[in-house]
Amino acid sequence: MILGYARVSTEDQHLDAQIEALKAAGAERIWSEKVSGAKAQRPKLAAMLEQLRDGDVVTVTKYDRLSRSLQDLLTIVEAIQKNGAGFRSLAEDIDTTTSAGRLVFHVFASIAQFERERISERTKEGLASARKQGRIGGRPPALSPERRAEVRRMRDEDGRGIAELARLFKVSPNTIRRA
């Protein structure tokens, strides 16, 4: 059975074009929802995935309707395939029910993995370069060394409490404790 999934991100967007394209592609049953693809909770998608049977084909108009990130797409397609079903994206002409479609999808997945690794490498290189230049990165301290000394003095000599010092210096009590 060909199952369709249509999604738009906001309430003011329309599902009509997606639903028409899915019907034209032979979708016998269509799940649709208006929810951001970045959200983990997509009730209609979850309901469709629960009802998958061997031989079904989940069809979308574009792969970004199924997920926002490539990693999420790969995870969802893996869940589809574990149920014995296939995945088809009309715009990208990906169809995992054919050997050529599986090849294209795996090349797609390999490129995504390669890009994730390259991003990680570039990030590490950038951090190492910054360290060599004396920059350590991260968030700047909430209290300068002078203000830390003043916090200690006010606590030790004036006997002020942590909560009072936090209000005075406009920082959290934990920042005062660390000072």
Task: Explain how this protein is built.
The protein is of the alpha/beta class and 179 residues long. It has seven helices and five strands; from the N terminus they run E-H-E-H-E-H-E-E-H-H-H-H. The chain has a five-stranded mixed β-sheet, with helices on both faces. 21% of the residues are buried.
Task: Average the pLDDT over all residues and give the rounded result.
Answer: 89
Q: Bin the strand percentage.
A: 5-15%
Query: CATH superfamily membership of the largest domain, which one?
Result: Resolvase, N-terminal catalytic domain
Major sheet strand order: 2-1-3-4-5
Under the CATH scheme, which class of the largest domain?
A: Alpha Beta
- Looking at the overall shape, the CATH architecture of the largest domain is 3-Layer(aba) Sandwich
The N- to C-terminal Cα distance equals 65 Å
Please report the total strand number as a whole number: 5
Low-confidence stretches: none
**Rg (CA only):** 26 Å
As for the number of domains, it is 2
Helix-and-strand structural type: alpha/beta
Domain Resolvase/invertase-type recombinase catalytic: 1-134
Active site: 9 (o-(5'-phospho-dna)-serine intermediate)
Protein name: Recombinase family protein
Organism: Roseovarius bejariae
